[in-house]
Each structure stands twice: as structure tokens, then as C-alpha cells.
Amino acid sequence: MTPPKLSLRLRTFLFFALMAALAAAITAAAFWAGFTRVPSAGVPSGFVTAGLIAGFGLTGLCAAIWRLFDANIALPVERLAAGLRARAQTGAAAGLDRSEARHLGDLAPAAEGLADRLRTASEDTEQEIAAKTTQLKAERDRLADLLSDIPLAMIIATPDHRIAMYDRQAAAALSQAAPPRLMAPLADYLDPAPLTAAHAQLGAPGGEIPCTAEGHGGAVTFSLRLMPLTGAPGYLIIIDGTESGIPPEAARPLVYDLALMDGAVPGGDARALTALPYVVFDTETTGLLPHKDAVVQIGALRMLGPKPVPGEVFDTLVDPGRPIPPASTRVHGVSDAMVAGAPDFTTAGKSFHQFASGAVLVAHNAPFDMAFLRRHAARTGVHWDHPILDTVLLSAVLFGTTEVHTLDALCERLGVVLPPEDRHTALGDARATAAALSAMLPMLQARGLTTLDAVIAETRKHGRLLEDLN
User: Fold this and answer.
1) Is the overall model pTM greater than 0.90, yes or no?
2) Is the dihedral of CA 292, 295, 301, 302 positive or negative?
3) From CA 282, how far away is CA 303, in angstroms rounded?
4) pLDDT for 279-289, tens place per residue?
5) 68: domain range?
6) Which of 153, 220, 278, 288 ranks highest by number of CB atoms within 10 Å?
7) Domains identified in the chain, total number
8) Residues 422 and 305 in one domain
9) What digits encode the pLDDT tens for the residues 227-243?
């Protein structure tokens, strides 16, 4: 269902504005009618004064009534609706302030009672499902660990040559070209020409086609074997570790999302929100001025739709090339001693750009973080042309502009727990932002905002929030 273009509060204001205009027009018409019946000997100034007083008085009365209605009816209803959406989609337990909703009669208690009942029923169902799937999950995790311990580097690719699964050995091999990422095109890691030629020769399941392909940038050569899958689209790639010079085993699990095998990934920014890859990130800096301060830490994680991808995490300290002010260290805990020997921003920025390739960038107050990245774009030789979502603006879309939209307030509203020791660390704040995004994506879809283009268009209506924030 498409959400109304005008909010309840705005429609209420327009209703009362129309009431005031009509009252003034009626009063003016009445006095004009009386005026035209007065002899033309002179202007009845008392008559005109009375009309003005009546017009302004009615307008002021309507404004006062609107203010009362907005504060006691429209605003509580809007907040109640936002709270119910949050409960329905995330299970967040935060309720409506009863004193604020006192003029709604029994609506707020009834709505909260229904929401509590639904949440209780949902929790009971989830507990039953969890109890029945615990053993299945344990067996799946054990199988994943066993497969990842097999001394082969394996990748499952979709029919359109994207990564749908990789093990820890493949992760170690791929990392020589670029950070391993689900949904990433194989062309980010391998020369596509020999890979495409070998893929075209694949026949019936059971056969294999050898292939030699250079890694992206020519830093390493991979010896590959391509095999068709039985009963599934896509194909299996085995990387010969001894001939490819694979480094020691990486400490990461089997990473997969076999739902990607169902078909080619659609292109363009209009894709469904649940089909998009996201990189949620945060930076810690020497200060609050992007034009003169520097980054000291970058933390990020990748998501496919609302689900974080296990193991796909970026976390690095950055040498700012200058002393870190003690006041900044007190906030994020990063000291001069910690960044000694860390990569400079040119190196860290390139690595992060590779990690974020092909994804939508997400941050809380994104203009602040993006200003630091773009300031050094020329020096790092990369272009930050990713689509961007800002969780401040997503919060405004879902909960209204009059609410508080700090990361702490948003997480509290959505029931996201923020460990105090992780707050104001780059990766900790990125994890909190990712949890908030995961909760908000289904809420956006429930409001009819199902594509990236639609969400971005809606957030642009609230851009003034970021201007005020920054």
C-alpha cells in the first residue's frame, strides 16, 4: 500500500488553516455586505475595525485550536503509529508515553495491549521454532566447519559469474586480488576471458574443465578447475593451492548464501531493498572538521539485504600523520601509540574502497564520514560513486522529523542493544548502525518503499536534518 503523501499532522494543519481562511472570508464577506449598505457619506471606520478584529480573532482561535489538536491528538497518533510499526517489525518493547497520549482515550492502551499480545504470541512461536531448529543449525555449522577444513579452495558461482559461496582457503586465495565478498563478480578477482571460455565448455555434471587465469592486477596466477553442479544452476570452482601460491589458511568460516543461485542478480539502483548488498561503516577522526581533521579508524561490515555476512568485516586503524588530540582520544579511545605503524589513509582508503565495491554505503550521518573519504579521493585514486543511505534520514522517514535521531536514540527505539565498550569505536558503531538498518528495512517495505530509488527519493525530503546536524 502506497503511504499518503501528506502526514496526519500536516493534513490536520491544512484543515485548520482552511478553517481559518474560510472564517476570515465569511467575516469579510459579511462586513462587506454591511458596508455596501451604508450611505456613501463616509467610511465607517468602526465597522472596518470590527471586521478586522473578528477576522484576526477567528484566525487566532483556529491557530490555538490547531496547536492543541496537534500536540494532544495528531502528534501522539503519529508516534503511536511509529511505535507500533517498530514493534511489529522488530519486536522493540519501547512503548508510548501514557501522559503524552492521555487525550487519545483508550486508543493508546488498546493499541499497546494488542501489540504486547502479538509480541507474546510471536515470542512463543519463535521459541518453538528455535527449539526445533537448534539441532539443525548445529549440524549445519558443523558441516560448514568440516567443509572449510577440506584442503581445497572452493567457490560456488552463480550463472552470471558472481560468488555465492567460498571457504576459508578460497578467501585466502581471493584476498591476494581483493577482499572476498559474497555477490561480488568474479571479474573483481580473476581475468574474465579464460574463465568465461572455460565456463562455455562445461558439459554434464561430473566433468571438469581446467583453466588458468591471472588474478586482478596480475599479482598472482590461479590454476582453476570448473565443474557443473548437479541439480542447481551455477558452477563450482576449485583453486589448486600449490600451483597458485595460496598463503596460509585464513581464519574465517565457510561463507555462503545459496539463495543467490536462484537467478541472475538484477542490475540498477531500483533493485529491491532485500536484494542489495550494503556496506555499513563508521569512521573515527582527530576532530569534527572534515576539511582539516583526519581519519584514525575505519570499521565496516557487509550485508546482503537485512542479513550481515559472517566474516566480511573491515576494521583498521589509520595513521593520521599528526598527533591525535587528547579530547578526541577520550571519545574514541584511539591514541598516538595505537596508530603507530598503522597504514596511512591512502592505503586504508584504497582497501576500504575495494571492500565496499558494488555495495550501497550506509552510515549514520553519512555526509560527515563521506566528507573525509572524498577529501582524499584524488590522492587515493578512487571514486566514491556508490549509492548512499543515511540512517538519520531513514529514521526521519519512519518516525517523523520531530523525534531525536541520534544513533543511541534510534537503537533504543528499535530495541538494538549498544554495548557501552563498543560505542564510539568505528566497528562498534558500524555494527549498531547495521542492526538498526536490519530492523528498518522491513519497516520501509511495509510502508511501500521497496526499492532503493524510492527510499532515496523519500529521504531527500528530510535533507534539512543533516544540514542542521552538521
Assistant:
1) no
2) positive
3) 15
4) 999 999 999 99
5) 8-36+44-88
6) 278
7) 3
8) yes
9) 998 877 889 999 986 44
